[in-house]
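User: Just a sanity check before I run the rest of the batch. Below are the structure tokens for the first item. I only need the designed sequence back.
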């Protein structure tokens, strides 16, 4: 072989070896789907990057993920990889909201951590990835989510098979597709966004409590509307306690098993929805029962007095804890058959959820935008100028009169006016012709009693008088994304770093107001608590929290038609008496409402009065209040940007039993009523139970209403009460009776009533409450009374309508 060829071959081999060595010494990255590796359009998900650094020094690199069709939005991770090590990281990204059965993205890896250097690629590297999507559209319903099974991997294979079959049977019963995914706690991270592809989550893992970040993600996901089923017989008590904490204080007594179990329905269950009060289940093999004591939560079914199905409201979501083997809820042989004792689980967890955010983006942004405006001088400043001018004229006038030079007032008064006007001119010159740069954050937080990590999500409205690049810094896993991105194409990059911190690069803010969606977490040093009860004045309670902000503009609302304003005290206590009842269109009280109160009233009005809701809000007794927002986790703009905002807190109220023998006043807001069938089997349509609204009618009608005394007041001995009704039923006889279901006692007869009537109740009307805990009101509206018609008579309106009806009760709680 000629030497030239040998020399050439040697140089080529050396070049190849040099290339391989160079590639091997560089930090490399491979990016793909992370978390559960499933997505829904328009939702958050996770990506995962594996970074390898074979060098002898730490390297900092930037990996950028570019979803296809995401209008220039990029999601990146800046990571420091120690020497001679491999590091794996996850970070969120928003999936584009467009019809597609696959979601693709590309990724870039930059040698320089600021993204300014060349792109680093391996030879033949594939930089396009896809998320796995199965049937993203189900029976015409968009964004039908998956059913998740969170396991430990240590379960009996037969038990896991049983859990899958059970969950599939429940999905089928709820008319949803069998879209399922199983995963472990190791697949989760501190980002609750990893669970957004799920509709419900079934937990059987006994080791979940060993993964604090995974527990945190499940809790926050549930607060934002997630639905969780905890199979306590599988998970053990440690996992349930780790997830729910003080939200459901629960203690395990022992475990038992039996071939036969009798399940008893709770006494307050609807006889229409649940006609069978007791169910007996027989098994070939013994079924397990974990006997527990649960201090809170609603027990739907029990076995020998021990809870079997416990429902726990969890923010906007729901958690159900079951203490028995899965075979109790369905026959899994051949074709699975769901038992009647599982109906609540199907309805609460597996039925298609129509729950939306209680306050829409438009309403929050409108409330936020109202705070953006000119800086108006304070009332004190105006008062000082006005009284200063008056005082100056008076003093100078007295001096000139004493000197007998009162004619000098002709030029002194204009001079004084000019002097007093100079501060006003100076203050006005400080204000520019437009509003100052402002960032207003309006958030909504569904408070979960006993939890120290709370989600607070909403809208940030940002105003700048001119276009500029917006600085945004986010901590503690906060997120902020533009709402309207379809018109933009310039790359904007969210950069994540360690410890849940991130910031935006190249986020352009156009002149004017622009809205962004925000997500944040609020960490409390200790779980906040709310205690409330009923006394002789009405509703009283106390906040037990270490928060510095004082709640204001509080409202107590529940399943009753009435709402009450709640007055907060500086020591954390609050109260609401019969004088604090709000008019139907009233939400905030005060002699002269401030601009802030007016905006809060508009948010309340949208929350309670919207006609788009098929079911009235709320469905549980809830205390709503406003607090100043904590802006530390999300900073928008530079130091010259005015930061402000507030958070609407929604917290469910669990009443504590008042002392036995104490005088009580149960206000109308705590006495809900609903239409029930009368003795003839008729159900009046003049009042809608779901929307809690009275409807107008033109025909004669009998309406039977059932009022429920709060459970914590029972047994309740009523001594007096009042029925208040506002009705317009011209030319009609109206009879109102109160008492038992079969034989209510006549309270009042009204002829052609029009207006507000307050009718006192006696012991004769209220005698049945102690035994039953309920009282019935019968409203009998008769036919129109015929009158003499004349040529001058105008056309008569034969319609009638109840504008308002409520009841209050006085009495004592007895033994």
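Assistant: Here's the designed sequence for the first item:
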């Amino acid at each position: 072989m000629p030497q030239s060829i040998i020399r050439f071959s040697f140089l080529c081999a050396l070049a190849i070896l040099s290339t391989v060595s160079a590639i091997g010494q560089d930090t490399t990255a491979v990016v793909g789907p992370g978390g559960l590796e499933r997505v829904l359009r328009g939702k958050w998900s996770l990506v995962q990057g594996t970074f390898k650094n074979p060098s002898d020094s730490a390297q900092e690199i930037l990996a950028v993920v570019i979803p296809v069709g995401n209008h220039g939005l990029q999601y990146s991770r800046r990571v420091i990889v120690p020497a001679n090590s491999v590091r794996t990281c996850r970070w969120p990204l928003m999936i584009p909201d467009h019809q597609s059965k696959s979601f693709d993205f590309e990724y870039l890896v930059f040698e320089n951590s600021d993204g300014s250097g060349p792109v680093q690629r391996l030879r033949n590297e594939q930089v396009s990835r896809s998320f796995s999507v199965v049937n993203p559209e189900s029976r015409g319903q968009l964004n039908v989510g998956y059913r998740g099974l969170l396991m430990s991997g240590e379960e009996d294979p037969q038990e896991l098979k049983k859990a899958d079959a059970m969950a599939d049977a429940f999905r089928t019963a709820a008319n949803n597709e069998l879209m399922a995914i199983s995963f472990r706690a190791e697949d989760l991270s501190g980002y609750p966004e990893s669970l957004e592809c799920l509709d419900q989550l079934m937990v059987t893992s006994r080791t979940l409590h060993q993964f604090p970040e995974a527990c945190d993600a499940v809790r926050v996901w549930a607060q934002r509307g997630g639905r969780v089923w905890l199979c306590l017989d599988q998970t053990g008590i440690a996992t349930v306690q780790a997830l729910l904490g003080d939200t459901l204080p629960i203690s395990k007594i022992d475990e038992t098993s039996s071939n036969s179990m009798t399940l008893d329905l709770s006494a307050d269950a609807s006889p229409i929805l649940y006609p069978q009060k007791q169910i007996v289940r027989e098994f070939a093999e013994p079924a397990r029962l974990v006997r527990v004591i649960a201090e809170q939560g609603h027990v739907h079914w029990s076995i020998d007095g021990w809870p079997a199905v416990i429902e726990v409201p969890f923010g906007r979501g729901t958690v159900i804890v079951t203490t028995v083997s899965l075979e109790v809820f369905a026959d899994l042989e051949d074709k699975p058959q769901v038992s009647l004792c599982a109906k609540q689980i199907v309805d609460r967890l597996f039925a298609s959820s129509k729950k939306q955010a209680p306050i829409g983006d438009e309403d929050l942004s409108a409330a936020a935008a109202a705070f953006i405006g000119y800086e108006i001088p304070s009332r004190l400043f105006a008062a000082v100028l006005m009284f200063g001018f008056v005082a100056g004229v008076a003093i100078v006038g007295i001096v000139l009169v004493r000197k007998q030079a009162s004619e000098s007032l002709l030029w002194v008064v204009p001079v004084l006016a000019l002097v007093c006007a100079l501060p006003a001119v100076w203050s006005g010159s400080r204000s520019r012709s437009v509003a100052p740069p402002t960032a207003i954050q309006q958030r909504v937080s569904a408070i979960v009693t006993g939890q120290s990590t709370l989600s607070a999500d909403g809208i940030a409205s940002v105003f700048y008088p001119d276009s500029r690049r917006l600085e945004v810094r986010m901590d503690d896993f906060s997120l902020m994304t533009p709402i309207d991105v379809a018109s933009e194409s310039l790359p904007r990059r969210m950069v994540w770093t360690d410890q849940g911190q991130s910031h935006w690069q190249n986020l352009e803010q156009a002149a004017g107001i622009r809205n962004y969606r925000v997500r944040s977490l609020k960490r409390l040093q200790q779980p906040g608590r709310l205690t409330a009860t009923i006394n002789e004045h009405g509703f009283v309670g106390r906040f037990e929290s270490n928060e510095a902000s004082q709640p204001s503009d509080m409202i107590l609302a529940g399943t009753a038609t009435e709402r009450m304003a709640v007055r907060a005290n500086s020591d954390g206590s609050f109260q609401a008496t019969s004088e604090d009842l709000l008019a139907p269109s009233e939400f905030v009280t005060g002699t002269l409402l401030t601009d802030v109160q007016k905006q809060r009233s508009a948010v309340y009005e949208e929350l309670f009065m919207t006609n788009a809701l098929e079911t009235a809000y709320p469905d549980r007794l809830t205390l709503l209040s406003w607090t100043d927002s904590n802006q530390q986790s999300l900073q928008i703009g530079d130091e010259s940007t005015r930061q402000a905002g507030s958070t609407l807190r929604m917290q469910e109220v669990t009443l504590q039993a008042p002392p036995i023998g104490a005088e009580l006043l149960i206000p109308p807001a705590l006495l809900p009523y609903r239409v029930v069938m009368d003795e003839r089997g008729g159900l009046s349509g003049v009042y809608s139970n779901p929307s809690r609204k009275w409807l107008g009618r033109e025909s004669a009608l009998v309406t039977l209403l059932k009022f429920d005394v709060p459970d914590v007041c029972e047994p309740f001995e009523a001594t007096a009460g009042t029925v208040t009704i506002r009705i317009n039923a011209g030319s009609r006889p109206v009879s109102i009776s109160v008492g038992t279901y079969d034989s209510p006692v006549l309270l009042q007869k009204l002829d052609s009533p029009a207006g507000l009537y307050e009718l006192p109740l006696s012991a004769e009307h209220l005698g049945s409450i102690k035994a039953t805990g309920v009282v019935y009101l019968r409203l009998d509206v008769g036919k129109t009374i015929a009158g003499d018609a004349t040529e001058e008579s105008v056309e008569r309106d034969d319609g009638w309508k109840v504008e308002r009806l409520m009841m209050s009760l006085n009495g004592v709680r007895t033994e």
